[in-house]
Amino acid sequence: MFHRYGIRTRLLFAFVGISLFSVLAAAAALYSFVVVGKIIIQISDVDSPAAIHSLKLSRQAQKMASTAPKLISADTENERAQIWATFSIEGERLNQLMSDLKDKRADQELAVKLVEWSVNELQNNLNTLNKLSTLRLEFEGKLKNSLSIFRESYSNTERLLSAALARLEYEIEIARRMGDDTTVAPKGQSREEPRLSKLLAVRTSLQQSLKHVSTINNIVLSAQLARPSGQGGSSWADQRDNLRVEAQVALSVYGSIIETLEPKLAKDLNIEFGKIRKTIDGTTNLFSDIESRSSAIKKAQGVLLNNSTTVSELIGTTDQLVDLSEKNISSSFSTAISAQKFITLALMAIVALSLICSILIVWLYVGRKVVARITELSECMESVAGGDLKVDLPSVKTDDEIGRMVTALTVFRDTAVEIEESNLRELAHTRQRLMDAIESTSEGFCFYDVDDRLVVANNQYRSLMYPGAESTLVVGMTFEEVIRNAAEKGYIKDAAGRIDEWVAERLAYHRQPGQPHIQQRGNGQWIMVSERKTGDRGTVGVYSDITELKEREDELAKKSESMEKLSNQIAKYVSPQIYDSIFTGKREVKVASHRRKLTVFFSDIAGFTETADQLESEELTALLNHYLTEMSDIAMEYGATIDKYVGDAIVIFFGDPETRGTKEDALACVKMAIAMRQRMKTLQGIWRDSGISRPLQCRIGINTGFCTVGNFGSESRMDYTIIGSGVNLASRLESAATPNEILISHETYALVKDEILCEGAGFIELKGISHPVETYQVVDLYERLEDRGEVIREDFPNFNLEIDIEKLSIDEHDRAIVALRRALDKLSTVEQVENRNTTVH
Q1: Which of 8, 26, 29, 97 is the most buried (most CB within 10 A)?
Q2: 3-state SS assignment for residue 600
Q3: Distance CA 674, CA 784 (A)
């Protein structure tokens, strides 16, 4: 019964049997996966997260406790608020970790409650510490205010006493040297002794005042630096009372000495004395503020100590939870290993049985009944595929798949024999049709084989290569022979006088063909040669007669050259930017305009009429052309658009048809004007040397504003120019400028003031302008002025310095020195105070 089925069915039965063993192995593996999966879920979802959350919670608590001292050390309220904001974020994370721990360790209620109590205690301590830090900063603010008042009064008192002592020393010295003429001294006593004694007594009083004021200052410094002592030492209250008593005694003595001094000095000292007494003996004084600050710090230190205890208890509790998780994980691993051993043994048994069955099936059936027959059949198929259609095929013994394949191969071989005979006939017909097609084309066609010998060539190719001697070009000639014969017979114009060199170049192109190239023949023909390699490394060539096309190309080149000469002449009548935009197609030549913010430049020659009357027309023309050429070259250098020349006047604008931005356009325009003014100084010397007694001087006006720019006129004649109020204002500024002066409007000044020094020229009335216009004179670039040492300029955030050294008067020079010294002293004082505060803290 088994032999009734085909090979596919028999193999199917065999593989189903083997698959049963695979199913058993899969079932065993699945059981193993289920067991291990439950254990992994227990570890990954319960035990491991619980241990991780416990560790994270303890570390978070340690982190918050370790950074808590930052609250005490905060120097400002903003710093304290930032630190507290960080604590708030960390506290939220701590609460989240506590919530996660509750979810993962619901079975350990007592331990979780102990951890929760510790977390709450830690957060309460931090809240208390925040309040104490706020209180400490409040008292420190009051203390700083009191110390500021005290230091100012102490400094004023010391200055008054020192000045009085200096004057008194001078009077004592005069009294000792000159004596007192109004006093008659007793016998044996100097005349100046009574006055000198009085002065000496006053000096003693002043010196005692200085000593007591210094004592008070030292007491205040001691009070700042004093700290509560440890066990066995005196308390801070005792230290404060002692220092306060010493200060009051010194104040009392100093106050009594003030009353003995001259009234004016006593009045000034009493003002400062009152301020000092208030800071030391007032309702809220230095000592009480220091006591309050120290008390807040001491309480904060107690809270920090409590934090350490709370965190230690929390860490101990979380360690217990971690130990419990470790025990659960260890137990789960033991269970998983036992299950793994059992399943491994079962899988090994199943795999062994499966291998034994597979070997028997392959050896007894597949090797003998299938592989041997397929091998014999494949050898026959390879012979047929290799072209041996007379090979002996196996006999058909069974009606299975291999038997049917033998029958099919027999039919295929017989069919292939018939097709081979038919293909030979068709190939002969196809070759003839190809040759007919090659002959019918108008281009020359050739094919050279891998050895570079001519295989196929049509009559057009022979006619192009050897005109009048076509029969000499025969199949089998090498490519080198063909081209050398053509060159030697004078058929190739390019090869005249250089045959060997030309042949080498032609062979190089033929062996590695690229783009088509053109040859000029001896009879005036132009041939375009296109070659390419075939798959078998042969070469196909197509030769086209392009003589007519070449003649048209030469004619077009001549017309293009004529057009280029004409356009170059036209370019001199328009601005280069306009010329480029028109000839590149970016701008249409039509009547149209648009609004744009431009920087407009007007200049003319001052006194041009008087100069013109003194010169002949030829001299005047040469002078004016020289001036306009120099100014135009500078304008082109800075990228300007030259609008027009009106006699001796030049109209220029920046911002169209190309713009670098309003600010950059304005800077370029003003820099151009400065360069023109500088060039005029050089030209004036040249003109003076040439005999012109009154060299030309230009005046310039510049304005930035919205203008209408575009083509104005008719369709038959138009002009690219600008119009508008901004243009009129620039023209009026130029008229108002003096010779060699650059006058600009306020809007232009606002755009260039960072790089160019300008001086205000005030508000001026301009013709055609309804309101006074604020104007500025352009001096020079800051960079150039700084290089020459005429200007000192520094500008950065919170600091601005600009000094025009050349224009400072003697009085302004002295005032500038005083102002700079005062600023330097102020900066030094601020630096000393900051250093002192840093040292005290």
Answers
A1: 97
A2: strand
A3: 11
User: Taking the C-alpha atoms of 189, 195, 200 and 203 in order, what is their torsion angle to the nearest 10 degrees?
Assistant: 180
- DSSP code string of 354-373: HHHHHHHHIIIIIIIIIIHH
Query: What is the 8-class DSSP label of residue 4?
Result: G
Using an 8 Å Cβ cutoff, are 553 and 518 in contact?
Answer: no
Torsion angle of alpha carbons 405, 406, 409, 414, nearest 10°? Answer: -140
Q: Are strands 718-723 and 697-713 parallel, antiparallel or unpaired?
A: antiparallel
Q: Are 736 and 751 in contact (CB under 8 A)?
A: no
Q: Report residue 776: phi and psi, to 5°.
A: -140, 145
Strand 592-606 to 697-713 pairing: antiparallel
Domain spans in the chain, listed from the N-terminal domain onward? 147-182+194-289, 441-547, 594-807, 817-841
0.70 exceeded by the pTM? no
**Which pLDDT tens digit goes with each residue over 65-81?**
777 777 777 777 787 78
244 CB contacts (<8 Å, ≥6 apart)? 280, 281, 287
**Predicted local distance difference test score (pLDDT) of residue 733:** 93
- Which phi and psi (to 5°) does residue 747 adopt? -65, -40
Query: How far is residue 791's CA from residue 802's CA, in Å, rounded to a whole number?
Result: 7
Q: Which residues of the chain have pLDDT under 50?
A: 1-2, 180-192, 229-234, 571, 585, 589-590
* Two structure tokens written together for 429: 């017909």
Tell me which H or E stretch contains 776: strand 773-781
CATH code assigned to 441-547: 3.30.450.20
Residue in the block written with tokens 């700083």 = 144
Start-to-end CA distance of the chain, whole Å, equals 107
What separation in angstroms does the CA of 233 have from each of 81, 227, 287, 526?
A: 36, 11, 19, 119
Q: In what order do the strands lie in the sheet with 526-533?
A: 454-457, 444-448, 539-545, 526-533, 517-520
The burial class, CB within 10 Å (0-12 / 13-18 / 19+), for 838 is exposed
Q: Which fold has domain 594-807?
A: Alpha-Beta Plaits (3.30.70)
